[in-house]
Amino acid sequence: MTATGMTAGNADTQDIPKISDYPDVGDRDLGDIWGRGQADRWVWEARYVKLLLVVDFGATLVATLAAFVLRFQGAAYADWYLVLSALIPLLWVGLLALTHAYERRVLFVGGEEYQRVLRAGVRLTVGMALVSYVAKADLARGYLLIALVLTTVLSLSGRVVLRKILHRARRKGACMHRVLVLGHAPAVAQLTRQLHRRYHHGLQVIGACLPADQLAGASHLVEVPVFGALGAAANSAAAAGADTVMVLSCPELDGPMLRRLAWELERDDIDLIVSSALVDTAGDRITVRPVDGLPMMHVEHPRLSGGRRLIKSVFDVSVSALLLVLVAPVFLAIALIIKLDTGGPVFFRQVRVARGGEMFRMVKFRTMHTDAEARVAAMREQNEFSGVLFKIRDDPRVTRSGRWLRRYSLDELPQLINVLLGEMSLVGPRPPLPSEVEQYPQDMRRRLVVKPGMTGLWQVSGRSDLSWEDSIRLDLRYVENWSFTVDLVILMRTAMVVLRGAGAY
After folding, report:
1. Full-model pTM
2. Which InterPro entries does UniProt cross-reference here (predicted)?
């Protein structure tokens, strides 16, 4: 049995999905990859880990073969390079195991899995470089660099693909954890609604246990089966076929009662998740420290300054300068297309708010007719976006070339100039308009402590399909949990989202 922490929002009175809205949780055929559905979660979890091993081992074989071909290209080489090429896959899989990259507590959801793979790649590269230096081995640096960098990239890519396959299975109701929730009826109802919004987390609420004084008449609020009182939670979980019990903040469940519950769940190998009131806080900022037998949760402050900010700035300037050189022909082609399509200016400049509330002019390729700003007032009633933003899915102000540019986010390429000038970052919160910032409540101003980005969590989580509230929430999550590794993962995910053209209009 494992125990983890999770956040849950406060209860509200919004409509709660009925149990009939959920996919069937019985056995089903999920194909050769996942086996027999949710009847035994250990089956699909074990198969997932085996697939990861195959992906990582295969990625290393491909990487070493590519390095061998690219570096030597038919030239003479020492026989021990063949031995090294055979050892690298074993070293890579072993190092990933040592960094716990195959543990199910970091798999299936979140970015911790990808961060561990990146850290393993850096360690293997540095380690082999040190060994070759100390041993004074005449090792071709090009071979080593290509092999190890490509290994890391291919392993990450393979894991992203596997995660996508898992999400597709979960969209169909497969590979889900069956969750019994313990808590007060309003909190259970809120959590049920929150988990039902998205499928990728893999948590499916199948029922609840409530305090004894709330059992009467609670079903109309909770709208999932109520299996009984809190004291019978372990037996209820076994009877319901749950593999996870989630405990919300509840005074009736004190320390001794939770400990007894953990013992009882251990008997049936059922996981225990205890929620906290923390929202959007990354796991690496949380440390559980025992104080006289009490587990105290210590929350580190986000690191938004110092050396980490310097590394981010150097990375932004270096990459943006390189990309501007590489995409210069694309700039010229897009400029020509815009001129031939509608004439008028190629670029569109708009005042946005940067870090600390400073103003700057963000540059984009023009995708709308030149009178677009003047037509906003007349089209205000057609707004399809909640909050302060104005968006229309089939906006008549968008030009023919503009629709294509927006679909693949090519209109945002000139923002590389803003990044090079230090006004923006490659990854960060969405750059807001001054009119948006004027309406921010105090907590939303937190997103202004970092530079706005060309891409971010909002870009890889739905883009224009997100509500204003969701985009703000994702921006705050990024600010609170920023790291260089997170930036790299977001950049990789951005490439995949842009190629699909999903959520852009």
Report:
1. 0.62
2. Bact_transf, EPS_sugar_tfrase
- What is the domain partition of the chain in residue ranges? 3-12+176-277, 41-171, 307-500
The bridge status of strand 271-276 relative to strand 244-247 is parallel
Q: Under a CB-based contact definition with an 8 Å cutoff, are residues 222 and 17 in contact?
A: no
Q: How many CB atoms lie within 10 A of CB 206?
A: 22
| 169, amino acid identity | A
State the virtual CA torsion across 287, 489, 104, 98 in degrees, nearest 10. -80
- Residue 58 CB contacts under 8 Å (≥ 6 apart), including other chains: 158
Both tokens of residue 212?
């004894």
Q: Decide if domain 3-12+176-277 falls under CATH 3.30.200.20.
A: no
Question: DSSP state, 36?
Answer: S
Q: Which long-range contacts (CB under 8 A, 24 or more apart) does 409-413 make?
A: 409/498, 409/504, 410/330, 410/334, 410/365, 411/364, 411/365, 411/366, 411/367, 412/364, 412/365, 412/454, 413/327, 413/330, 413/331, 413/334, 413/365
Q: How far apart are the C-alpha atoms of 383 and 458, rounded to whole Å?
A: 20
Helix (H, G, I), strand (E, B) or coil at 70: helix
- Between CA 149 and CA 143 the distance in angstroms is 10
What's the pLDDT tens digit per position in 424-453?
A: 999 999 998 898 888 888 888 888 999 999
Residues paired with 33 in a beta bridge: none
What is the rounded (10 degree) CA torsion for 69, 73, 74, 79? -50
pLDDT tens profile 312-341:
999 999 999 999 999 999 999 999 999 998
- DSSP state, 203? E
110's tokens = 């979140």
**Rounded Cα–Cα distance for residues 158 and 152 (Å):** 10
DSSP 3-state assignment of 363?
strand
Helices and strands in the chain: count of H runs, count of E runs = 17, 12
Q: What angle do CA 81, 149, 157 make, to 5 degrees?
A: 120
DSSP string, 116-161: HHHHHHHHHHHHHHHHHHHTT----HHHHHHHHHHHHHHHHHHHHH
Q: What CA–CA distance (Å, rounded) separates 248 from 182?
A: 6
DSSP state of 412: G
Angle at 8 between CA 163 and CA 274, to 5 degrees: 85
